[in-house]
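Example record for the data management plan.
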Amino acid sequence: GNTSAGTMGIDLKAGGRKKNTARTAPKSGNVYLHLLVKLYRFLARRTDAKFNQIVLKRLYQSRINRPPMSLSRISKFMEVKLY
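Corresponding structural encoding:
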């Protein structure tokens, strides 16, 4: 078949090519999770620390895909930030 650059493409009307499918909010209806998201959205926006952005990204993830992070680990990271 003839597949020159002009004829083939992504049929956007059919809903093709989703470039970014990462979550921008948690699916869960958990109020406390939403409060954490609110807090870390603010921190990720207002501070230049990569840590806050990573935590925010993890909060969006489904429970199965969410990598474990203990409170002790978080406190260890925050201790470094305080000094």
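Summary line stored alongside the record: The radius of gyration is 19 Å.
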